[in-house]
Amino acid sequence: MAKETNSKSARRRSRELVVQGLYQWIVTGEASRSAADLFIRETPDFHKADETYYKQMFSGVVDQVDGLREAITPFIDRPLIELSPVEHGVLLVAAYELKNELSVPYKVVINEAVEITKSFGGTDGFKYVNGVLDKLAGSLRTEEVAAAS
What we know:
Layout: H1 10-27, H2 33-41, H3 51-63, H4 65-72, H5 85-100, H6 106-120, H7 125-140, H8 142-148
């Protein structure tokens, strides 16, 4: 497994790009998955990302969006529509990873989400994301979270 601690690893760049693509997808009314994906692929730094991971994550999140939203909803304090598009996108990416990428430790998923939210979100958005993901991780990765306690 690639080391995840480097703040600008290829995986971090992939996650950032997926969040940016989801931001566009959410803001435009989820009308065009391919337009959001194409926009991101034309980003000048796309070559620095892990393209395989990006493709897997973007497609996975969009394909599973309803189930991911259902997983997140019990842990948020407002309707999804009221979340900022950045927080919404970050939560979707992290929920996808918690649910599907079991080789990535849950603490890494949460840390990456927090760092991306710090970079792209509102001032205290990272605190909200952290709180939601702590609860979601406890729900989706019960044994891993219990073992870490």
